Amino acid sequence: MSSQNPLVQEVLEKCKPIWALDHAAGLLEWDLETYMPEDASKPRGFAFAQLALMKQERIKDAAGLVSKAQNLDGLSDIHDALVFLSRLLE
User: What is the pLDDT of residues 9-20, one digit of tens each?
Assistant: First the structure.
C-alpha cells in the first residue's frame, strides 16, 4: 500500500516492521501450541517476549506520526489503518 501523502507514507512504512513482528509472534505461538518439545518452552517463551517488546517499541515510535496523520482529510482506506494503529497505542 502506498500514499501520495508523505506523512501517511511514513506511517505505512513504520507499520511494516510492526506487522512483521506480529506475524512472527503468531508463528511462534502456533509452534508453542503444536510442535514444541517440552525442553524448548523457556527459550521460545523468551523469544516470544522479546518480539512483543520490539513490537511495543515500534508502536510507540509510530505514535506521534499516527496522531498527526489521523487529522488529515481524504484518507479513505488508509484512515481505517490509522484508526486501527491508534487503538493499539491506547
Answer: 888 788 889 889
Cell of 88: 493499539
Number of domains in the chain: 1
Distance CA 9, CA 59 (A): 16
Q: Nearest Cα to 82, choosing from 28, 65, 90?
A: 65
CA dihedral sign, ordered 59, 62, 63, 66: negative
Domain span including residue 80: 6-89
The set of cell numbers assigned to 59 is 508502536
Residue written as cell 509472534?
25
**Residue 1 in domain:** no
Model pTM score: 0.70
47-88 pLDDT, tens digit per residue, is 999 999 999 999 888 888 877 777 776 666 666 666 666 666
Query: Which alpha helices (DSSP H) does 1-90 contain, by range?
Result: 6-34, 41-70, 77-89
